[in-house]
Amino acid sequence: MSNGLKWIGVLAVLLALSATAAYGAIYKIVDKDGNVTYTDQKPYEGAKPVDLPELSVITTDIPIPEKSTDESEQAKAAEPTPRELRKLYRDFRITQPQPEETFWGTANKVVVSWGSQRTIMPGMSVMLYVDGEPQQAPVQGGVTLTLDRGEHQVYAELRDPRGRRVVTTDPVTFFVKQHSAKFGSP
Fold first, then answer.
1. Which option is the CATH number for 79-177: 2.60.40.10, 1.10.3720.10, 3.40.50.720, 2.30.130.10?
2. Distances (CA, A) of 140 to 110, 125, 181
3. How far is CA 57 from CA 7, 14, 19, 46, 54, in A?
4. Per residue, what are the HEC states of 73-138?
5. Using one digit for the tens of pLDDT, what is the confidence trace for 5-40?
6. pLDDT tens-digit readout, 137-151
7. Domain residue ranges in the chain
8. ∠ CA(90), CA(95), CA(100), 5° rounding?
9. Among 169, 32, 186, 178, residue whose Cα is nearest residue 102
């Protein structure tokens, strides 16, 4: 180790020790081989603490930012994280129609509803996907869809106030069937 590095090491130790001097006494111990150790534990009865120079403090013109009292920032800080929201709404699901349900004679109208056991927080939104096409939907309740005959699939996404997806329901496949106008005719 070069002399310069030794002095830097000694200086670092002295600075560290001077920092702890503010909290209590520092003692210097030299063993039989000349190794020096500094400690805050009194090594023996009658040991005297080392006088260390005070730390130098440099002041700057840089202002310390004040804590924000802006209400919108406080609201953001109080807003649950996406992970917390996923836990709260993990039971969010399509409640109607049932998987593989068939609708007969409804004039092609089907009620699709969704929900969670927990009340959905203000500011959250639902995006409903019908056969892959997104449409904005009310947060609570459901919608009545007019669909062509055939197989259809719906699923919903619950989104946080920032529009980030929180939970996506499992897709539900159902069928709309109508009797032919000639059904039952001779």
1. 2.60.40.10
2. 17, 9, 37
3. 21, 15, 11, 33, 9
4. HHHHHHCCCHHHHHHHCCCCEEEECCCCEEEECCCCEEEEEEECCCCCCCCCEEEEEECCEEEEEC
5. 566 666 666 666 555 445 578 888 888 888 888 888
6. 988 878 999 999 999
7. 1-59, 79-177
8. 115
9. 178
